[in-house]
Amino acid sequence: MTKADAQKGIRYLCGLWAKERGMIVPPIDQPSFTDFYAWVQSNYPAYLDFRTTTGVQYDVEMWFDQEFKQTWRN
Residues 13, 47: contact at Cβ < 8 Å? Predict the structure, then answer.
């Protein structure tokens, strides 16, 4: 999968994951990236199979933080 395709998919999955957990977006509390990443690994591992110079988990966390308006954490 290309990085661009993975990014689109991860951003979509952020919304799906939040919906499954009954979260509003942007959330009031800080959603757990660790929980999200484990959920993606278990259910949609193809989205974690892309080339990157920074690291898959790093990129996914950046997209997650952007989707949930938490970029201030980085």
Answer: yes
Residue type, 52: T
Contact 25, 18 (CB under 8 A): yes
Q: CA-to-CA distance for 12 and 6, rounded, in angstroms?
A: 10
pLDDT digits (tens, 9 = 90+) for 2-59: 999 999 999 999 999 999 988 876 666 788 999 999 999 999 999 999 999 999 999 9
What is the C-alpha end-to-end distance of the chain, expressed in Å?
26
Give the domain range for residue 36.
3-50+58-73
* Number of structural domains in the chain: 1
The pTM (predicted TM-score) of the whole model is 0.89
Q: How far apart are CA 59 and CA 74, in angstroms?
A: 12
**Number of neighbours of residue 14 by Cβ within 10 angstroms:** 22
Token duo for residue 42:
């278990």
